[in-house]
Amino acid sequence: MLLAIGVVLLLGAAILAPLAIRAVRRWSLHRGIAEVRPRALATCAGRQVSVSGTAVPGPKGVIESGLASAECVWHGHEVLRHFWALTRSPETADHDRERASDSIADYGSSDLFGIVGPGGSTGGSPVLIDPEDAALSGAHMCLQRVVGRPQPGVPAQADDLLPRVKGKISGLFRGETIEFEYREWVLRPGDPIVVHGRLEMRDGRPVITAPLDGRLRIEQGGDRPEAPSAHRATDALLLSGSAVVTACTGVLLVFAGA
């Protein structure tokens, strides 16, 4: 009788063992992704991912922003042209001046930078981010300067920023120019970020880039994606423990009934 029960328990352990191994691997993989481990994220190649962690310099190290010369891992700037636009009153048919603005330059750096887990541990090399044409929110504004239009008989304010603007300057240049406004944003090393994009492998390294049908989204200090649920760890623990206990009990009963 004991022999038969022992054999049944060993068969049950044989069934539970693959389930336990699968549960442990699934839990380990999800934990590795949550901790931004390159090896775990490499399994997501070709898929959409959302990861949170800390921004770190990329292969080129810390870079310098174009306008303010601030140390950062990413920088972007915009130039606004403020002007007087003529509007016609529907009641009197008179023309009034109304202040308006156009963006005439918009630039974001394309140098690769990295992301490591929330605890700052890289587990090797950081996962890289390709910010080409990324939509970035929450970055630090490190510069905002207004340069007025030169007036007759008045010394013009030195505009040393215009030669440093990157990208194409374009616009309709409607109305009478009032002033130009320069604004620059940066991501600094150590900033908490959340990245939403597509993961691909480049030279054996995982890189998060823009999805095929959209833009890479980077949020500084944004809401973090949900951490791996606790039930995955519980399932892995219960299945592993059940498999071990069942196998040990089965072995003991088989020896006792032999």
Number of H/I helices: 3
H/E order of the elements?
A: HHEEEEEEEEEEEEEH
The profile of the biggest β sheet is:
5 strands, mixed, barrel
Q: How many extended strands?
A: 13
Mean pLDDT: 78
Low-pLDDT windows of residues: none
Rg from alpha-carbon coordinates: 29 Å
- Tell me the fraction of residues in β-strands, as a range: 35-45%
What structural class do you assign from the helix and strand content?
alpha+beta
* Oligomeric organization of the protein chains: single chain
Helix content: 25-40%
Widest sheet: strand ordering: 1-6-7-12-11
Outline: elongated
What's the short version?
By secondary structure, the chain is an alpha+beta fold. 25% of the residues lie in helices and 36% in strands. The mean pLDDT is 78.
